[in-house]
Amino acid sequence: MILVCRPQKFSIIGRHRDRVLSVRFVHTRRWCCGLLAGILLGAIFALLIIDHLDGYHDPSSLLGFSPREVRLVGRLRESEQQVQLLRKHLLVSQSELLNAWSTSAREQQDDDVSAAVLEEASSFDVTSDTLRTKLHPNGGKGRRRNNLDALGVPCKDNKGIVSKCKVLHIAIVCAGYNSSRSVVTLLKSVLFFRRNPLHFHFIVDDKARVVLHTLLSSWNIPHVSVSFHDIVPLTDLISWVPNKHYSALYGLVKLTLNKALPRSLDKVIVLDTDITVATDIAQLWSYFAKLKPQQLFGLGENQSDWYLGKLWKSHRPWPAVGRGYNTGVMLVRLGALRASNWTQMWRLAAERHLTTLLATQLADQDIINAVIKEHPEIAYKLPCQWNVQLSDNTRSETCYLEVADIKAIHWNSPQKLKVRNKHIEFFRSLHLTFLEYDGNLLRRELFGCNATAGKASQLQVQLSEDDDECYEFHRARRTNYRTHIFFVAPRTPDPAALPPASSRRSHGGSDGRAREDAGHGRGMINGFGDLDGNVGRGIGDDDGKDRRDSSIHDGKDGLDIGDHDSQDEHGGGEGENDAPQQTVDVTLVATLSMDRLQMVEQLLMHWAGPASLTLYLSDAEAQQFLAYTQTSEIIAGRSNVAYHVVYKEGNFYPVNFLRNVAMQQVETPFVFLTDIDFLPMFDLHAHLGRSLAALQATQGFHKTAYVVPAFETQRYRLTFPRSKAELLHGLDMGELFTFRYHIWTKGHAPTNFAKWRTATTPYRVQWEEDFEPYIVVHKDVPLYDTRFVGFGWNKVSHIMELHVLGYEFLVLPNAFIIHTPHAPSFDIAKFRTSPQYKFCVKVLKKEFMESLSRKYGNAES
């Protein structure tokens, strides 16, 4: 058995001996230095005396020198000889001290290795004969060096050192929304410690492709390149293998790395998404230099008794060498893998053992171990610190004695962070550190590697703070916000819980699932040079183009949510036996920050249809939100709501950017553009579906925005009106008011609330300056202008653009929303108190008007 080398740890006796030797050396050095200084000072003093007596000559002196001068010269020569002698003694002392230190270190290393063997023997039941052989393979003579060689302790040398600017390739299999979220922690841990340019190869399904494409392009990390490889063709190669592992079919994908990755790639590190790296990944890459030509893989040993077949009585694991190998962290030599006809090797092994074992239990790991059992020469054993496994029944504590020993943590248990382990609190803290770490801090340059430099420096704002009074606003507009769409994705409803297909209504093509265009965003993105990073950008960009077409998503990469329960909202009654009404599906779009999180549950209680919500959060707040969604019965009970996260950066709330992110993921024909502080009337989703279907039959949808009248209450406790009649009663009683009637009348005055009170059919209203209604509109509506951040003109500008485009505004007579009271936001407080803030909003307004003129001609002012 080969033990992993552990760091040297000196015992108390060894440290004491080193201390004594160090003290002796210091005293010897001080004495020698003092003596040398005295001799030199004496020589200088003698020369001064000679200089002082210059000109005095004794007639009896030889060659003109006096007897005194001759004596002084002799003493000076004696001093020089003593200095040379002392130098020799000092060199001897230094040599003896270094030899003593070296001997002490070797003896202490042997003690540590012996202790490690004893520890492993106690943990793994090694026999005493084997133990003695490991400790004294040559009967004690020369045991120190031979002991290290026998135990596989790596010596420190320059072999395998990774050059500073060498690109390291890392492959990760990532499928589904949950894996796309968990892989972010892995990426953070790798990027935090890395010192080399990296190229990530993601083997993805359609869902993960869209999420990671958006995230990594907006993250914009220098010296990082990304390639996406389609997982779908690979599933045909592995779908015939029965698998009982919780990873399902995707757990077998690593068997096809030779097919999945490009032929130009020769070596790659393969990591599972549940890995947390705790050191520079280049250290792992350096082990490639130690692989022999016939070795295809570098793997760490499995740290449980699974492959020993001792976990329970009838346990029948797949064959493996000893404890087997764990495939969560692997070095793979792809060139050698292809040359060895790897596909045939694993298929033959799988077919042979499936006849008796029927299915894999640990996915690809079972088959790889079976191949290694037949061909042990293809595996190189990595130190177990590179795969500290935290699953049930593991003995990972044998791999580390202190924090510095740990290289990579593997959460390979279905319980993940809840797994039982002796040091689980430490591991959990390390994982949470990266989970909540601000990813924006990882946008750092690697100095000296200009050939692979990222784009971070190219995105700096050109305007300086000195000559631009609204510098902060302009910088916010140009900020490339890190965006994680489908951070919490809509769950696919259980087919058994749905009504028969014949009884379901058509909702504009919605099928209750989130779909992505498999053909979008494929191929390599070298340093994200092929990504525009403009997710959520609006019409105000300098090129004057609508960025919906140039964004990462083309409209098919988003939310496609059917309302499978809507028949219960308006079914039954007198028309129960009639043909079902045609409806058009609508997705609610809103944004929020952490201080409005409590509104989500209230909103979902009022709105039964699909919703696309964007949250503006820090990394730590995102984890709090995730925990909130997992504990809320209301949120967990909905399968048609998607939550997207835009990570905080800068001083303003980028409201229009957030709206655009939510809009771009919508797949239903219509969107309801509202704010999180408004509660829609009960059954509004079903009402809109019926109303829009009826309007479509009579007048179509060509450039029409349907206005939902907005009201407000100043009471925190309100009996919410269930009909228009109850709402009108609340208006008459002074419990409800038209929205912002006393602060910003112009914003909603064109709605004509007096006419709405008695209206029974939709009616048109004229656009007026500063009009900002909440509307239902077709999803191909232009995006919001992202120059407007914080408070002021963010909705007004959007409605103005719709007016310039020729949209009509049609007020719905039986729909309404009510604004709930809340404390003023930080941005509105700044707007009310800062003249500079108001001035900059006017500047942005002027710039927006000019951009409208450039884009559409003579825009109305």
TrEMBL record:
Keywords: Glycoprotein, Glycosyltransferase, Golgi apparatus, Membrane, Signal-anchor, Transferase, Transmembrane, Transmembrane helix. It is found in: Golgi apparatus membrane. The keyword Transferase applies. The chain crosses the membrane at residues 31-50. It is a single-pass type II membrane protein. It comes from the Eukaryota. GO terms for molecular function: glucuronosyltransferase activity; xylosyltransferase activity. Pfam families: Glyco_transf_49, Glyco_transf_8. Its main location: Golgi. GO terms for cellular component: Golgi membrane. Residues 491-583 are annotated as: Disordered. GO terms for biological process: protein O-linked glycosylation via mannose. Residues 508-520, 539-573 have a biased composition (Basic and acidic residues). InterPro entries: Glyco_trans_8, Nucleotide-diphossugar_trans, Xyl/GlcA_transferase. The keyword Mitochondrion does not apply. This is Xylosyl- and glucuronyltransferase LARGE1-like. It comes from Hyalella azteca. The gene is LOC108665170.
